[in-house]
């Protein structure tokens, strides 16, 4: 009887170790390009699973750009009506603290109108993973493979391969 209890304890321990941990994830906005003109941030955010507790990391030239958190209306109009949401360090981290849509723009001149803006949807920590990304055929020689480097450890099976 004692060996049966020990066996059950060992199995439970193995399952607990093998279970994926739900940890916060850091997303560098724009990947290696960072936060600058000429990057398609809509395309960059596509397929990413942003969750409460994750961080957005904005890396940029602070003599040429800013990061401003705005509301949906300001985002559509490319205006920053709340100066208290202005970030200017050149290396800003924003912790996603609540579920819902989040909007960010560069408030310098016409940068937002030229595409320097980002909208994401943040899910609650325990929310189900998003729908799987459709399977893509392997790349043909000379082309780049799909980017899987932003796949969350707990949702790898949903990432493109």
From TrEMBL:
GO biological process terms on file: response to symbiotic fungus
Top-level division of the source organism's lineage: Eukaryota
Gene Ontology CC, one term: plasma membrane
Keyword Hydrolase: no
Keyword DNA repair: no
Domain (Phytocyanin): residue spans on this chain: 25-124
CDD domains assigned to the protein according to its UniProt record, in alphabetical order: Phytocyanin
Family matches, as InterPro entries: Cupredoxin, Phytocyanin-like, Phytocyanin_dom
Recorded topology in the membrane: Single-pass type I membrane protein
Intracellular or extracellular location(s): Membrane
Gene Ontology MF annotations: electron transfer activity; metal ion binding
Signal peptide residue numbers: 1-23
Keywords: Copper, Disulfide bond, Electron transport, Glycoprotein, Membrane, Metal-binding, Signal, Transmembrane, Transmembrane helix, Transport
Protein's UniProt name: Lamin-like protein
Native species: Sesamum latifolium
């Amino acid at each position: 009887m004692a060996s049966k209890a020990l066996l059950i304890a060992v199995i439970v321990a193995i399952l607990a170790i093998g279970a994926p941990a739900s940890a916060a994830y850091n997303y560098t906005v724009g990947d290696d390009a960072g936060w600058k003109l000429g990057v398609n941030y809509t395309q960059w955010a596509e397929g990413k699973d942003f969750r409460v507790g994750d961080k957005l990391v904005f890396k940029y030239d602070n003599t040429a750009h800013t990061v401003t958190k705005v509301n949906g209306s300001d985002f559509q109009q490319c205006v920053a009506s709340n100066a208290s949401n202005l970030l200017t360090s050149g290396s800003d981290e924003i912790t996603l603290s609540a579920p819902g849509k989040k909007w960010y723009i560069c408030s310098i001149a016409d940068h937002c109108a030229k595409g320097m803006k980002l909208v994401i949807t943040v899910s609650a920590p325990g929310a189900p993973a998003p729908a799987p990304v459709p399977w893509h055929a392997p790349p043909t020689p000379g082309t780049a493979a799909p980017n899987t480097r932003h796949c969350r450890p707990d949702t790898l099976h949903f990432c493109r391969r």
